[in-house]
Amino acid sequence: MLDVRDLHVHYGAPRRRRPALRGVSLSVAPGETVGIIGETGSGKSTLARAALGLVRASAGSVLVDGEDVTSYGTRRWRALRRRGVIQYVFQDPLRSLDPDLSVGTSLAEPLLIGGAGREEAAARVREFLPRVRLEEDLLDRLPGELSGGQRQRVAVARALVTGPRLVILDEPVSALDSANRVQVLEILKDLRADGVALVFISHDLGSVAGVADRVAVLYRGELVEAGATREVITAPRHPYTRLLVGSAPTLRGAPADRAAREALRALLHT
Questions:
Q1: What pLDDT is attached to residue 83?
Q2: What is the pTM of this model?
């Protein structure tokens, strides 16, 4: 569903260009969940934006559902999105949802854009609510009247209601408490049976480990490690990955060990 090949992205004017991604390659198959892990500035969001056509690749290519979208213009991207092939879930649902539209209207909007009639869209929305653990009485409420967990589930529902084949989620649980985090992660697990390909972007290895089949670790714009989630967690090879694993209480039960910190310190000075 997603195939990124030797992708380079630069920001800034020609004489002051700085690399955001350097030679990143990864793929996501139908029904597979791939976690993209890294600290702020590692290139995670740039990778997502490149896959969505929101930033231009300096070199390399991006294929979505077999289509090379690297050089797509606005019109072709709009057509691809309207076909419901790819959807995006933002980190902050309060900013991504229109504050003046009810939940029901927000969920029906992508269906209407895709050509569904109003009655068909309304019926589809009502049928979809149980999948994201939402009650029907929320449909008339505004986003500001919902809890953080409810808003995030609405954002996930809005992305999924059209039946996309690829969904990119940018830090979907970072602002949630533990109970709501578990609910959202369970929803994402259920999508595997539908053959939906997921890209789960996060700085939190613990959250990703519970849902991802594979993990890719970005550091300073480079893909420094990738593999099956269990292998990356139990036998990390790169010093930065070892620091991430050692820092995750849910994975190791303790903060980063001294060896990991020393390895990262050495890496930073190379």
A1: 80
A2: 0.86
